[in-house]
Please model this.
Amino acid sequence: MTTKIQKALAKNLKFFMAEKNFKPTPLAITARISQGSLTDAINGEGANGLSVVSLGRLAEALGVEPGDLVDDWRED
Model:
């Protein structure tokens, strides 16, 4: 079951990755997280979601605040 936070994270990751011109593999390497964890996050999947550390690393790599990745701030 996908949670509201997982959906927001997936949507925001896709948005910021496009804005910063990041592909999944380079982002995973830059953020020092596994490709599988990133793929799950992008797809709104993953039984346990991302750790706070991984979320922080992704935010840092994308040049945003961690809250920007999980807040449902964008309208479709």
